[in-house]
Amino acid sequence: MYYAHFGLKQPPFKITPNTEFFFSGGNRGAILDALIYAVTSGEGIIKVVGEVGSGKTMLCRMLQTLLPENVESVYLANPSVAPEDILHAIAFELQLKLPKNADRLQVMQVLQSYLVERHASRRQVVIFVEEAQGMPLETLEEIRLLSNLETKHDKLLQIVLFGQPELDVNLNETQIRQLRERITHSFSLGPLEENEIGEYLIFRLRAAGYYGPHLFSKSSIRKLSVAAKGLVRRVNILADKSLLSAFADNVYQVTPKHVNTAIKDSEFGAEQTRLLNKPRIYLMALAALLAGLAMGFILKQQLGYDAEQPMSHANASKALSSAQAALRPKAAPADKIEVQASTSDISQAGPAVSGSTSAAADKTTAIDILQRRLEVTQNWLNQQPPSTVTIQFMGGGDDAQIRTQLEELAGQIELDNIYVFRTKVNGRAFLSATYGSYTNRDEAVRAMQTLPKIVRANRPQLRTTGGIQQEIK
Q1: Per-residue model confidence as pLDDT tens digits over 302-330
Q2: In-domain check, residue 259
Q3: What is the DSSP secondary-structure string of 371-430?
Q4: Which residues contact 2 (CB under 8 A, 6 or more apart)?
């Protein structure tokens, strides 16, 4: 990889949220402080809205990290929960003992008793709901009813909704207006400005161990900013690919050329390229039309072509050669000819870059690792009681990324204790990875503290196997 080339100790632009790389610019720090105040004050429902890739998950992880120890959090990663199941999902995550075949009323009573007990111990419970825009309106209403649980002076449960702009659209529905009225704090994550992106890039590089001058030129930052549209995830993807392209060229500063290569190698970059190329296609069509007209004119001028008299085959060949010669551009003087070296695609950058991805044999091993963990996990889940606690430390929608990360972790933690399961987040396929099987939360917390730093840096969460089964269903 390019880390040693630029003097980096770790990857600076991974898209997996790492709280050590939290950037407080772009109003992120101010929003985080306001969220901490809103949660600890214990009033109402809190809403955080931001576009895809704007940094909502990172903000959620930071909030969980900085909340006082007396605040207990429940993390709901899968919003596609039916209204009749949401109470059970929360109870599972809190490890509450429920009567067999408990109905909604019984679950609510057990949950309320637990919250009253926590309040008496001066502890708070807060629920974080990710991708809340994908939650059915009926389920949102069920969550609103949970916010009714309170004492004479305090709410027993805090709820923080993280979602895309569609969440605001859902909350404007008439049947959900009661929940909308309960929202006491609302925050919006806007895109980063160009100057903030420059600050963001050097901040992440410094956090990864870089000490030199800015690796990105001003013109490359400008181009990257336009392509990323201020979205943090896109910035990370383009910055990573740009550094890889600069590494392939064996240079120590990223230029617009390297950013262009990164844009072409990105999914959203391909779409942008198609949009930019539309005017170019029209110009090419116009040029072809004009060239055809010019050729016809030259044929007529040079051979005295009369449309009413047929042209012989020999004369036609001669006319065509003459027209092509007339249209052929004159050669430029030697000192005016400009040669521009083409930049190979990142995926074809040669041996220096191919080391950043797995070779064929390694790729087969990585695929075997992922497939094996998926198979083992299904058997493991079927054998575990719902109260078993495990540590969720990794997730993503890209199989290749999870394979690579599993391969990297193979030498640091026991693969036999890693479990991977498939679910859906906002209707899209998602992979989650957990570690270990523990009888209670205290045991899991102690085990979490012994995990390698690279795993703990991702701010792992405690899950129950019952909650995981609910999420898979």
Answers
A1: 555 444 444 444 454 454 455 445 444 44
A2: no
A3: HHHHHHHHHHHHHS-TT-EEEEEEEES-HHHHHHHHHHHTTTS-GGGEEEEEEEETTEEE
A4: 8, 243, 244, 246, 247, 356
pLDDT given for residue 366 in this prediction: 40
Q: Does some domain include residue 386?
A: yes
Domain of residue 383, CATH code: 3.30.70.1070
Contact assessment for residue 73 and residue 64, using Cβ atoms and an 8 Å cutoff = yes
Query: What is the pLDDT at residue 346?
Result: 38
Residue 241 has a pLDDT of 93
Q: What is residue 465's three-state secondary structure?
A: helix
- Please give the tally of structural domains in the chain: 2
For the chain, give the longest Cα–Cα distance.
Answer: 106
User: Which of 117, 123, 125, 161 has its CA nearest to residue 143?
Assistant: 161
Report the alpha-carbon distance of residue 252 to residue 210 in Å, rounded.
Answer: 12
The CA distance from 166 to 172, in Å, is 10
pTM for the model stands at 0.58
CB atoms within 10 A of CB 141: 15
| Per-residue confidence (pLDDT) for residue 412, from 0 to 100 | 80
Q: What is the pLDDT of residue 281?
A: 55
The rounded distance, in Å, linking the Cα atoms of 214 and 252 is: 10
Instruction: Enter the DSSP assignment of 438.
Output: E
Average pLDDT over residues 240-268: 90
Q: Which pair of tokens denotes residue 62?
A: 């930071």
